[in-house]
Amino acid sequence: MNELDLRGIVKRYNPGKPSQITVLDGLDLAVARGEVVALVAPSGAGKSTLLHIAGLLDSPDAGEVWVGGQAMAGQGDRVRTAVRRREIGFVYQFHHLLPEFTAAENIILPQLADGVARSVADARAADLLARVGLSARARHRPAELSGGEQQRVAFCRALANGPKLLLADEPTGNLDPATSDQVFDVLMDIVRSTGLSALIATHNPELAARMDRILHLQAGRISG
Ligand code: ADP
Q1: 46 CB under 6 A from ligand 1?
Q2: What count of other Cβ atoms lies within 10 Å of the Cβ of residue 144?
Q3: Among residues 29, 93, 87, which one has the least CA distance to residue 222?
Q4: How far apart are CA 151 and CA 155, in angstroms?
């Protein structure tokens, strides 16, 4: 079964205006359960647009999005929000952690928002931080962490609610090459050990080569 299915996705910006552009033009893409797929494309090709649509943060103008075998077309906000919160983890190029909360709290808050008991959420945050080697940083705020540490905490937050699908938009693009390699190792370890499916956008051919499959986004479609 596919964890993610995108079928015939069309996305335009500024429709009907002289500035209209068609960013995604009938795009088909599938990520099988447990598969880790690289999405490679130059800047501006539409990677973020595609990941936002896959992550139910935006809707396509045409086409179908299926997550975990469930069609999202015609679903209301309540279902889309629940699927986004429980089934999908998102990692961005910049960590987007909440600055006034500690590393642990940043991982606890999404769980509380999903109705998890505080004690369970605390234990899960501690477990995730241990897995990325950051137990000693649990009480640090984001500004007190290095760039690589911030991204490792952002991975933990993305995994806080036990998603099945990880969507990552240049997750190490903001780090120096050595740190990027280390942080990517941590990400791959955690993805593989949890059996997550993942779609990871990257410019970096060496990182892409470590995934199960590489897809190129070109002229609004997947070119293989
Ligand atoms: P990538 O992530 O590959 O760099 P994006 O998905 O961010 O690409 O953007 C794809 C194209 O769509 C770019 O040409 C960008 O300028 C345009 N674009 C993105 N968001 C918007 C928007 N909200 N309104 C108009 N154009 C946009």
Answers
A1: yes
A2: 12
A3: 29
A4: 6
* Residues with Cβ within 8 Å of residue 26, at least 6 apart in sequence: 8, 9, 10, 63, 220, 221
Phi-psi region of 64 (alpha: psi -120 to 50; beta: other; left: phi over 0): beta
Span from the CA of 48 to the centroid of ligand 1 (angstroms): 7
Q: What is the CATH number of domain 31-60+76-223?
A: 3.40.50.300
Residue nearest to atom 6 of ligand 1 (CA): 46
User: Which ligand 1 atom sits nearest the alpha carbon of residue 13?
Assistant: 25
Q: Tell me the C-alpha distance between 161 and 89, whole Å.
A: 8
Indicate which residue's Cα is closest to atom 5 of ligand 1.
46
13 lines ligand 1 (CB under 6 A): yes
Nearest CA, atom 21, ligand 1 = 13
- From first to last of its 224 residues, the chain has per-residue pLDDT tens of 899 999 999 999 998 899 999 999 999 999 999 999 999 998 899 999 999 999 999 999 999 999 999 999 889 999 999 999 999 999 998 889 999 999 999 999 999 999 999 999 999 999 999 999 999 999 999 999 999 999 999 999 999 999 999 999 999 988 898 899 999 999 999 999 999 999 999 988 889 999 999 999 999 999 86
Return the H-helix or E-strand segment holding 4.
strand 2-13
Cβ pair 202, 173 in contact under 8 A: yes
Q: Strands 2-13, 62-67: parallel, antiparallel or unpaired by DSSP?
A: antiparallel
